[in-house]
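Q&A log
Question type: sequence-to-structure
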Amino acid sequence: MTRRHGRIIGFATAALATPVWAQLGRSVVDTPHNLAASGPGVIRATTEEQVCIFCHTPHNAAPIQPLWNRDLPVSGYTVYSSSALDARPGQPTGASKMCLSCHDGTIALGSVVSRDQIIQMAGGVMTLPPGHANLGTDLSDDHPISFRYDATLVGRDPKLTDPAALPLALERDHNAELQCTTCHEAHDNRFGHFLVADNTNSALCRACHQISTTTIDAHMGCASCHQPHSAPSGPFLLRQHHVTATCTGCHDGSHPGAADILADLDRVSSHDTDRPVDPPDPIPGHSTCTDCHDAHTMEPGHADPPGLHPSLGRVGGVTA
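Response status: OK
Response body:
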């Protein structure tokens, strides 16, 4: 059991300590995860006033720590996969499956083990409504979970931080697996999105992902090009449905300082770039921005032949 899960048990049994939690600034009471009738979120119960009951119960719990009060989903999931992923995620396990008991939208929010009847939610809501919080059972467009993050994985992908050097806030489970709870703390929303740490300047992302640096401001933040959940591209978790569309989201002539690449792509002689991300086989005649440019290492400036133009970055397969 992790330190964070140890705190969960304390929350579940200390119903009279609500004012203290609020003073600490780590209270689930003041977050959208408070589904009680008095909760601050849009989704809440009609009359149920217990806060912890939607996830925990001190008695007659499911045989799952920490005093879990929900059935776990049994449906199969489509998990994330891409040619760039060295890990091999399987079906969700551990704490991630607990999160998915609400966030995959297959089990009623008010369905708890300790009650014979489903707790009724305001407005007749049963499961999480469609939206960013409802991930569904297709997790192929979400950051991978339930895989071992260990020295072996880092040996295959040197752009990952050695697990021994990870910040204490980023906890893996007892199997050294990365779970939803590695990045999210269900009881504390001080950083937004229930993140375990401040993600200003992509600090949380960079705690694991040791990408190279660039001085181009628009390329510094991971969220400029990527989104960790419900990403339109699926593989690579891009903000648009393919690489070129992601790049031309800025490089379309409407952003000062960003080259207008979209105008070049409208020419008769341009490459075909409008194809799916990460195809299983090479596509004849297809090219995309990242074939020549590495957004993580490219720099402004010029270079005389045979030097490499700094806008290429350290893209693979290109040498002076």
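Response note: Residues 214-320 form one domain.
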